[in-house]
């Protein structure tokens, strides 16, 4: 290859016809997808790089990229022109499928943005997650925007609405091959640092009833937080919230297997499982044990190829028959071509069923490095055993 090696012993052997060679793509991150021709040019770039799977963002900031009656069409996209197609997602799915690219819908679930006027906050304020201080802004993430806004995973109406929306989307687009759940969690929260989340009435009342906590009306959140400390119920409080997220994963899986059989459900997960459980209430082990998942896309966002190898090995062992495709970050980190190839090789050598790059913007549109040519050559030369 062009001045660098595909690996000390060559590329690991894998069948690229079966492996996921993918990228997460945020609509119009190229800056030219406001027309059909611009969108097509992006898909042609993906295809020429050997990409066979695109996880296209379909639900972001509490909005979506196709016209429907449940979730608003993304702000500003009314001004775009996709010719014969009525909206962005219709054009993307149809044109990608015509090029032999599989499309999975990448959805942000409980994260709904940074604007107070987001549809869900305006029309369903009781669905919005609050922290221990009563704020709907979670400043452990998105500090530059005043903090992220989340839906409350404990709210059954919010969970049900999302599931009905995903069902609608998959009905509308039968060509979509699968659903990829991202932000399938609470915002980062640390009880000991007073950044805890989940302090909505529905969540606190349910927990208080289960564990015999008497809440006072005058300052419920303070009383609730104090009771958890005094009764040593932190582990139970973590598990209680994690169970709502797990319940949602199971319900999405049930919906897909009943109504959209054959379409895989995947989740973007953190490989640091203990941290993900305590800080984000993401119980990946429970999801895998339940049999709800068809694929996981662990976000192996390390700089070092050895770390990629170890994290993929851990995830692959845990998956036990569930497809595991390493999510890689080398292009987002602006790492060298050699490092990108080393990361891909490390994942494949550890048993990954392919790789997904985060994200298309940093890989194809914003880098001075011609990652497209590198990927094209790598995917052309990789063994086809």
- Give the biggest sheet: 8 strands, parallel, barrel
| Secondary-structure-derived class | alpha/beta
Average of per-residue pLDDT values: 93
* Helix and strand element order: EHEEHEEHEHEHHHEHHEHEEHEHH
Q: Globular, elongated, flat, extended or rod-shaped: what is the shape?
A: globular
Radius of gyration: 21 Å
Neighbour order of strands in the largest sheet: 1-2-4-7-8-9-11-12
Structure description:
- Helix 10 (about 305-320) packs parallel to helix 11.
- The longest helix has 26 residues, at about 235-260.
- It is built from 13 helices and 12 strands.
- It is α/β, with parallel strands linked by helices and about 375 residues long.
- The strands form 2 sheets. It has an 8-stranded parallel β-barrel with strand order 1-2-4-7-8-9-11-12, surrounded by 4 helices. Strands 5-6 form a two-stranded antiparallel ribbon.
- The protein starts with 19 loop residues before the first strand and ends with a helix.
- The chain is globular and about 65 Å long.
- Helix content is about 40%, strand content about 15%.
Key terms for this structure?
385 residues, alpha/beta, 8-stranded parallel barrel, two-stranded antiparallel ribbon, disordered N terminus
């Amino acid at each position: 290859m062009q001045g660098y090696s595909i690996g000390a012993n060559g590329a690991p052997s894998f069948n690229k016809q079966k492996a996921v060679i993918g990228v997460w793509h945020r609509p119009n991150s190229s800056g030219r997808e406001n027309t059909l021709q611009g969108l097509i040019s992006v898909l042609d770039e993906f295809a020429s790089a050997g990409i066979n799977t695109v996880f296209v963002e379909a639900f972001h900031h509490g909005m979506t990229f196709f016209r429907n009656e449940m979730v608003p069409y993304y702000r500003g996209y009314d001004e775009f022109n996709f010719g014969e197609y009525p909206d962005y997602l219709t054009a993307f799915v149809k044109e990608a499928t015509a090029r032999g690219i599989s499309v999975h819908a990448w959805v942000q679930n409980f994260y709904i943005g940074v604007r107070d006027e987001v549809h869900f906050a305006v029309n369903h304020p009781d669905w919005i997650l609050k922290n221990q201080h009563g704020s709907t802004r979670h400043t452990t993430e998105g500090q530059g925007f005043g903090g992220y806004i989340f839906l409350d995973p404990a709210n059954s109406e919010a969970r049900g609405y999302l599931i009905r929306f995903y069902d609608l989307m998959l009905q509308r687009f039968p060509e979509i091959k699968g659903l990829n759940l991202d932000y399938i969690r609470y915002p980062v929260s640390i009880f000991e640092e007073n950044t805890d989340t989940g302090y909505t009435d529905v969540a606190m009342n349910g927990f208080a009833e289960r564990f015999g906590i008497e809440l006072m009306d005058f300052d419920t959140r303070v009383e609730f937080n104090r009771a958890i400390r005094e009764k040593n119920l932190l582990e139970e409080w973590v598990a209680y919230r994690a169970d709502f997220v797990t319940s949602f994963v199971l319900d999405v899986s049930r919906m897909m297997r009943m109504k959209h059989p054959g379409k895989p459900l995947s989740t973007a997960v953190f490989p640091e499982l203990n941290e993900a459980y305590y800080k984000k209430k993401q119980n990946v082990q429970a999801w895998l044990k339940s049999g709800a998942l068809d694929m996981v896309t662990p976000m192996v966002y390390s700089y070092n190829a050895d770390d990629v190898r170890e994290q993929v090995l851990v995830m692959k062992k845990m998956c036990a028959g569930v497809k595991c495709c390493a999510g890689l970050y080398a292009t987002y980190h602006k790492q060298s071509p050699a490092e990108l190839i080393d990361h891909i090789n490390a994942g494949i050598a550890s048993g990954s069923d392919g790789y997904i790059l985060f994200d298309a913007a940093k890989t194809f549109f914003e880098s001075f490095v011609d990652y497209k040519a590198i990927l094209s050559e790598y995917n052309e030369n990789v063994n086809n055993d």
